[in-house]
Structure formats: structure tokens, C-alpha cells
Amino acid sequence: MFVKQNVSNTHLCLEVIDIMAGSGSKTPGMRRQPRQARSQERVNQILDVAEELFIRQGYTATTTNAIAVGAKVPIGSLYQFFPDKAAILQALALRYTEQFHQCFTELATELASLPLAPYVERMIEVTDQFFREHPGYHAIFMEVQGTMPELEQLDEAADAQLIQAIVLSLSQHYPELDPQDHQAIAFVLVKAIGTLLWLSLSQEATFQQRLVAETKRLALNYLQSYLG
Amino acid sequence: MFVKQNVSNTHLCLEVIDIMAGSGSKTPGMRRQPRQARSQERVNQILDVAEELFIRQGYTATTTNAIAVGAKVPIGSLYQFFPDKAAILQALALRYTEQFHQCFTELATELASLPLAPYVERMIEVTDQFFREHPGYHAIFMEVQGTMPELEQLDEAADAQLIQAIVLSLSQHYPELDPQDHQAIAFVLVKAIGTLLWLSLSQEATFQQRLVAETKRLALNYLQSYLG
Amino acid sequence: MFVKQNVSNTHLCLEVIDIMAGSGSKTPGMRRQPRQARSQERVNQILDVAEELFIRQGYTATTTNAIAVGAKVPIGSLYQFFPDKAAILQALALRYTEQFHQCFTELATELASLPLAPYVERMIEVTDQFFREHPGYHAIFMEVQGTMPELEQLDEAADAQLIQAIVLSLSQHYPELDPQDHQAIAFVLVKAIGTLLWLSLSQEATFQQRLVAETKRLALNYLQSYLG
Amino acid sequence: MFVKQNVSNTHLCLEVIDIMAGSGSKTPGMRRQPRQARSQERVNQILDVAEELFIRQGYTATTTNAIAVGAKVPIGSLYQFFPDKAAILQALALRYTEQFHQCFTELATELASLPLAPYVERMIEVTDQFFREHPGYHAIFMEVQGTMPELEQLDEAADAQLIQAIVLSLSQHYPELDPQDHQAIAFVLVKAIGTLLWLSLSQEATFQQRLVAETKRLALNYLQSYLG
DNA sequence: TATGAATGAGACTTCATTCAT
DNA sequence: GATGAATGAAGTCTCATTCAT
């Protein structure tokens, strides 16, 4: 599950990220690759409506007809783009992943040059912002945990991106640590940060901000214990 | 959501816990309080089968008839104990909560006398053990996140137990901190610990043990930053 | 496909017939064995309506809802008795087979003692009557030729009954012929008779009667060429 | 349904056959008469693919889109040649009929001069060969028995060709028989022969050859009973 | 004319829940 | 009370056909 390797090349970071971003490759789960603007617009419309309904009612409680109606797309057209209901969820997952990837690509240069502490702080801020802008990210995927193997991969892959990026940074700045340490530290950081930031979303504004700050404190002190 | 109060009485801890353990009160979601041994046995049988099926196939994919068949209980009888399918999930949640409560009640005396660091360490160990023995705990509830308000309460309540227990301990040992600090610290600790331990369950044995150790390190260093 | 054996025991005839009549065995394709009179009545009602609709509109053009409505049975109930649409057709086939079997069982004693020529004549008359009383027999099964393996067996089995009965009679009265001759003759007789009698059904009354007579003539002259 | 007339002119045979061969007349069921080579080629391509799919999956289970894809013809173009799905089946039936007609036209002279017995024997051989070369002939039409009136005519017409040809021969060689006898005899011969030869196709090689021989024996002995 | 994306009625099937026995 | 057959609303998905480009 964890790619264990000693890397010393900063650019690998983005290469690793590219692995699952699939820039330009054909989207899996799509019945037909929409080439025309109209189609792409429809697909996005479907995904937007699906996202909202999945968040509001859950994946199971949302019907394909409701999505079609909400997206003002005939049900038949919906099924021209997606072979079945699950494919909509997968496409949504992929869209999240791509957006996530884009977020971090934009910061790649900035992040690459940072020492680990500010690196992690920045990552927390960016992740927080991403969650705030994409409230469905975790919400949707929690429901189908354990029932859709293909989706698990995507979800896992998104985290794996971050984990590998951190592993990379750790191995560069702290080569004296064991590669297994790198993996463990990165895993703990990413998962703890992800969870806390996600949970913070449903808290009231003041407490929410406090939680973001606490997340940084948690992460930095943990790192310090290894690196200090 | 969070009971904010300065308490100095150890027993309050259990009182808080009692709030949702419902010892003696009429179980909510139950159509009929099974007084006879046979009935109680059937209810447990139903919950056992439901737990297994929910874990294996998910809540939605599991039919009430399948539960009835698995529990060797007529479907009509099942509906005499539970008003609807959701009530089974809620009863399951309640059972988890009770089991969780029982776990910590047994350790109440031991924990109450400990300083915070060993307290948290012990809590991590006990939680880890509980998860290991009740693999359905998180797995089941993730699916219905955001779609079953009543359940959210129960799920939240389980964590709230721990959070309040920690708040209590914090307020006793570190009264110089703001009550809001107590809440934030306890929240972060409980959620981060809960997530990491749960995620550790699906990792291979070596990495799993490492994650438990890392969870302790994460929690203790975070606490140290406040208390050191 | 053809059981090749030299038999000299008259009773075997009925044994062979019994092979696929399945007297008392559990009906395959049935989701639930209806034990109560009400259920059996409903199943028959469903089959009656299905038979009529299949004949009138064809198997594919007939919807399960139409059957349910026609039989005044809720669609849900229909699916308690039959796992899917195909199972209705199979049950219908089985009912035909059983009725067919019953027809010939009633005549078993009479037929067994007859010389071959009157035997065949009588068989033609009985078959003609059966087709007249069960106009769906062939009509329905023609449509699904080659698309429902399970059904093919039943259809084939019904003919196989007759074929084996004739093979038996041939082997008794004309042991000087090769067993392969028995098979070929019986096959030709049964298939030719079956087809002609079935086709006669859609002809006008006068021509229809003529065709039954011609069928006898065809069969008897064919037999005579071997046995004369 | 049966043209009852005493004819003594050999050429009438072909005239009768011409009735439904439609040489030169506008093909029914065709939306547009393809005049250009490209169009005719496409129509044939469509029919070839449809034939294969109808045989393999049945008429109902075959989608028009699948035919279009298989024939490498845009679905829109397909609907320019055929008004609906049924028209494809009808055109296929017509093509069979034409091919059948061609088979017998080639043998017309040879057959016309033959006495009845060799005539019938030759007809069996030719029919057997035709079936062998066009395995879809019966297979396809069985499925839609009773659900497509237009098709029934075409299917019937093919047999009617043979029947009328035999009626003709009978009336020439055995004018002492009643015209009704001619019709009945011809009907029985054609239908029995057609069925047995078709059934022989699905038998193993040895038994198949035997069945062709038996078919001749059946037909000839039947004729002999009238003509001997 | 040629194309193929778009359409939506309607098919099959499920399953939580009830209620007559 | 106990049972389990009965119910039917509602879900997912198909595919013959059209029509804008």
C-alpha cells in the first residue's frame, strides 16, 4: 500500500502526484467521452447536482431520476454519459481528485522549497480551504466505505498523494530517519489533519477556526518530536 | 453540543456518561420493552445478525428480511421489537455505546487517579482494544453520516463521553487553562485518536502496531505543548 | 440425446414418462412452494393469464405488470411466486408437460396393449385433442427457441416422452429392427405428427380435419414401409 | 389461403413463385429504394449483421444500434433504409424468400420434367441444402410466430411456393385426384419435410443424414399410398 | 443527405412494512 | 401475541426512434 523508496529528487513529488491525476487520459467509468462543449457542460451539470443531492440525502437515497431532473437532463442522456449510478459517484470522486491535485500543483513550487514545518502548515491551510470549497469531498465517500472497491482506490489515492509528498520532504530534510519512519509520520499527519479539518467544517465558526489552529499545533508538535 | 462546566467531582464523569447510556430508562427506538428472556434473546440475536450484515454489505444493502432470516426470527416479530429498519441501526449504536461505556466504567477508578499523560495513553490502549473487538463500530456509522439525525447523536455521544472525561481531567489538573482550551484539546485528542486507531485496523500487523504507538506520540506531544 | 436401450418390459414406458413428470418433487423455478390453497389458486391464475397473453402478444411483448393486473394479483405477489419473468414461462412449460403426461398416463393401459398401428392412430387423436385444448403449447415455445436453454429441455422432454414410448413399442413388436431404426422412426413420427397437428390448428375446419386424417395416413404408411 | 386451380401449364409454376418474389416491384417495408451501389451494399451489410445477431441472440434481444454498429452504418442511415426494427426482419425474410426462389428457379427445368417421386426426392435434397446454407431461415421466424402478421405472410409464402409447385405436379400427373387432395397432399409434404429437415440440422452428423433419408422415405411412402 | 446525440416511456424488479389468521 | 404472505410505490436502466446539425 505504501510505496517505500528513498528518493532525493524534488521533482519526483509532482511525478508521484501525476500518477493518479491522469491528466488527459480517458476517464474511466464514462460510457462516452464527451467531446463537444454541450456534452461536457451536461456532464458537469449532472455531477454538480449529484454532488449536492449526495451531500443532502446521501448516495443511496438519491435517485438517478432526481439527478436527471435536477440537472435538467433526460434520464436517457444521463445514462449515455454514465453506465450506472455508481459511475456518477466515481466520476465525482475523480473530479474531486483532479481538483485536489490542481490545488497542490499550483503550490508545488512554493511547497517544494519550504522547510517541513511551514510546508505542513501551508498544507493544512490549503486542505482546509479545499474542504471548505468542496464540502462533499469526505461527506460523500464516507457513506460508501467498504461497498465500492473502485472508489476506495480513488479516495486512498488522494491521500496517498499527500502522504508521498510528505514522505518525500521528510526523506530530503531528514534522511537520518528510517524510511519506515517517513511512512508512519506522513500517514499519521495526513490522516489526522484530514479528519480534524473535515470535522471542523461542521462546528460553529469560532470553534472551527480554533480547530484549524489546533490541527497545526498537533501536527507541528508531532513533527518536532522527531525532528527537534 | 459540549457541556461546558467546571467540575471537580470525579463522579460527574460517570454521570455524564450515564446521560446516554440510559441505564434503566426506557430504551428509545424500541417499540416494546422485552421483559421476557426469550424476547431479549431474540433482540440480541437480531442485533448480532444485523451487525454482521451491515458490516459485510452495508446498511442499505441489507434487507430487514435478511436480518430476520439470519436471526431465525419471523419478520413480523422483528417489527414488534423495532418500529423500522433505522431503529435496528439505532439499537445497534446504543449497544455499542453501552459496551463502550462499560469498557470505560471498568477502568473509571484506575483512570480517575492517573495524571493526564498515562490517562491518555491508557485511553488509547483501551480504545484500540475496543475497536479491535468491535470492528463494526465506525464502519457501520460512516455509511449513514448525514442521513440519520437521530443516529448522529448517538455516534457523537460516544465520543462526547471521552471528550467530557478528558475535559474533566484537564480541568482538574490544569485549571489555569481556559474551559474553551479544555474543549478544544479534548476534541482534537479524541477525534485524532479515534480516526488513527480505526484506520490502523485495516493496516498490516506491523504497521498497525506502529500506528498505535504513533497515535500515543501524537497525543502526548500535543498535550505536552500545553502542559509542559 | 436419445436413450438407446433395448427394453422388453412394458412398465418401463411409464417409468420413462415419470422421469420428467416429477410427481411430487419440488417445482424448479418457483421461489416459494405454495402450500395453501389460496396461493396455488393464485399461481394458476397467473399462469392462465400469462398463457393467454403470451399467445396473444408473444412472450417478450407481455409485461409482468400486465400479467399481474390480468390475474388480479399485486405485482409483488407475482414475484413471490416467480423469481423473474422467465420463471413464469418455465412454470407454464412444466404445467403443459404435466398435463401432457397426464393425458398419456390415462391412456397408458389402453395404449400399451395395442399393436403399433392403432397405437399411433390413437396417439395422433390424443395429441390432436391435447393441442386443441392447449393452443399455447407450441405457440409459446416457438418464440423463445434458442434463447432459453432450460425451456428447451422441457419442450424436448415432452417430445422425448412420446419418442421413448414409441421406441418401446417398436422394440417390443419389431425386435428384428436395429435400435437405431427405432430411434429414427420414433423421432420422425413424433416430430412430423406434432408439426402437422399443430399447423392444422390454424386451418379452417374442413381442411383441419383433413389434415388430421392425412397425418394418420402419413404416419401409418411410413410405419408400414418398415413393418409391412 | 391456397390458390385452388387446375393448371396444366408448367410456366404457371414460376408465375406463382413470382407472386411473392417481387422481381422489379417496389420492395415493401423499405423506406427508400436504394438505387446507388453504396446504399445497396449498406442494406446487405445491415441484413447480414441482423441475420447473425437474430440467430445468436434472438430478434427481441438484438438492438437496432447493435445492428448499425455491426454493419458499420450510422443508426440514422439504418432508419433511412428501414422504417423500423420489424422492417429489417421483413427484409431479411424477403431475402430468404428470394434466395429460396432462386434455388428452385435454377432447378425449375430439371424438376418440371421429373415424375413426382424423383421430383420430391430432389426437392428434399435441395431444401436440405438450403437449410444447411441458411441456418437462420426457420430459427429467426419461429421467434416472432403470431406476433407479426406481415411476416407470417412472407414465411407462409415461401412454403406456398413449394406447395403450389407440388400441387401443379400432382395435378399434371394425377388429374384423377380431387384438387382438394392435391392441396392436402402438398401441404403435408411440404410441412413435414420442412420440419424434419430443419430439426435434422441440430442433430449429430450421423443421425442427421439418417433423418434426411427418413424424410424421403416418409414422403415417398405417403405419396405412394395415393399414387401407387 | 448523413449523422449520432438526444429522448422518455416503460420494462423488470425490490423490499420495507402491514395485517389477517 | 406470533406469524409470514401480501402489498405496491418506487428504483434502476434500456432502446426504438427522432431531429438538429
Characterise the protein shown here:
The structure is a homotetramer of 228-residue chains. By secondary structure, chain A is mostly helical. Chain A folds into two domains: 8-26 and 92-227, Tetracycline Repressor, domain 2, CATH 1.10.357; 30-82, Arc Repressor Mutant, subunit A (Orthogonal Bundle). The first copy, chain A, has helices spanning 12-21, 37-57, 64-70, 75-81, 85-106, 108-112, 116-133, 136-143, 149-173, 179-201, 205-227. The model of chain A is unreliable at 1-27 (pLDDT under 50). The interface between A and B is large, with 36 and 36 residues. The structure holds a DNA duplex (21 and 21 nucleotides).
Give me the secondary-structure topology:
4 copies of one chain form a homotetramer.
Chain A: H1 12-21, H2 37-57, H3 64-70, H4 75-81, H5 85-106, H6 108-112, H7 116-133, H8 136-143, H9 149-173, H10 179-201, H11 205-227
The structure holds a DNA duplex (21 and 21 nucleotides).
Class inferred from helices and paired strands of chain A: mainly alpha
Number of strands of chain A: 0
Gyration radius of chain A, in Å:
19 Å
The CATH architecture category of the largest domain in chain A equals Orthogonal Bundle
Helix content of chain A: over 70%
Q: Which spans of chain A of ≥5 residues are poorly predicted at pLDDT below 50?
A: 1-27
Question: What portion of residues of chain A belong to β-strands?
Answer: under 5%
Intertermini distance of chain A: 29 Å
Give the count of structural domains of chain A: 2
Largest sheet of chain A: none
* Oligomeric state: homotetramer
Count of discrete alpha- or pi-helical segments spanning 4 or more residues of chain A:
11
- List the chains of the largest interface with their residue counts: A-B, 36 and 36 residues
CATH topological fold name of the largest domain in chain A: Tetracycline Repressor, domain 2
What is the molecular shape of chain A? elongated
Broad CATH class of the largest domain in chain A: Mainly Alpha
Topology of chain A as a string of helices (H) and strands (E): HHHHHHHHHHH
The chain-level mean pLDDT of chain A equals 81
